[in-house]
Amino acid sequence: MEPGFWHDKWDAKHLGFHLGEVNALLIKYWPE
């Protein structure tokens, strides 16, 4: 992965401090 790719997304607020919470929800509710 290119670090710049993630930095661009962080700058666009697509990722951030809530990322862990979002991942937890995806793991909990993602259909298997």
Fold topology:
Layout lengths: L2 H9 L7 H11 L3
> How big a fraction of the residues is strand?
under 5%
N-to-C SSE series?
HH
Cα radius of gyration in angstroms: 12 Å
Overall pLDDT score: 66
- Structural class call reads mainly alpha
- Total domains: 1
Number of distinct helices: 2
The number of strands is 0
Largest sheet: none
How does the overall form come out from the CA principal axes? elongated
> Uncertain spans, ≥5 residues at pLDDT below 50?
none
Helix content: 55-70%
Give the distance, in angstroms, between the N- and C-terminal Cα atoms: 26 Å
Task: Describe the structure concisely for a colleague.
The protein has 32 residues and is mainly α.
Labels describing this entry:
elongated, mainly alpha, single chain, 32 residues
Structure, described:
Helix content is 62%, strand content 0%. By secondary structure, the chain is mainly α. The longest helix has 11 residues, at 19-29. The termini are far apart. The mean pLDDT is 66.
